């Protein structure tokens, strides 16, 4: 699962800009910026954080990215791509929770591992999905996505992506559940959700070059929680099903 909506947004076009001259050449991109995101999954409050950015892409072998995680290609054809997938899933600290701090559980970050499969119709349009499981926990996750690269505007490269995500019961309860003790403290009903689709996100990404090797990466993501996630008392009473994330980073690529 891409953590755009869980953590960092997907800046897909940095890699595209980095190897625009040669699609088969390795590319390396490094940068830093700022991100404004929900304080926790389902929160109506927002927080700012610094954003390191790394994207190392080795065509036919894999990619390591702070935006998209780790992929190792086991299938690398003209249209089909697939292999091993891993990512870092952020939790929530007591400070992130604001008025809920100390009243509901804080969640430590976890690494998740699994696999991905993607089909590229052409260089502009691709669809795919990935499944993953906590390496230290019982959570399981699935995501389906479609990505379309829009026609360039001047030197600006940009794309849109639609992604839907789901969780199994343990993952859903970890993020959106309310235990009886927590419910008594909050004055809400207890909530023990089961597996289901959790969110849908639409993201716009743009890369604005400033020189041959530098530029700004911009991402704006609008997400909406639904099903058991949006029905959680944490979201209904203290948060919002609408989740917006904005990111701006300065990137050097070669």
Describe this structure in words.
The chain is mainly β. It has 6 helices and 12 strands.
State the end-to-end CA separation.
Answer: 27 Å
Tell me roughly what share of residues is in helical segments.
10-25%
Number of helices: 6
Strand content: over 45%
Coarse shape:
globular
List low-confidence stretches: 1-22
State mean pLDDT (0 to 100 scale): 90
Look at the helices and sheets and give the structural class.
Answer: mainly beta
Main sheet summary: 12 strands, antiparallel, barrel
N-to-C SSE series?
Answer: HEEEEEHEEEEHHEEHHE
The assembly state of the depicted protein chains is single chain
Give the SSE map.
Blueprint: H1 13-18, E1 27-38, E2 46-58, E3 62-65, E4 69-76, E5 80-89, H2 94-97, E6 110-120, E7 125-134, E8 140-153, E9 156-167, H3 169-176, H4 180-186, E10 196-209, E11 214-225, H5 227-230, H6 233-238, E12 242-253
Antiparallel strand pairs: 1-2, 1-12, 2-3, 3-4, 4-5, 5-6, 6-7, 7-8, 8-9, 9-10, 10-11, 11-12
Keywords:
mainly beta, globular, 254 residues, twelve-stranded antiparallel β-barrel, 14% helix, single chain
Concise structural overview:
Helix content is 14%, strand content 52%. It is mainly β.
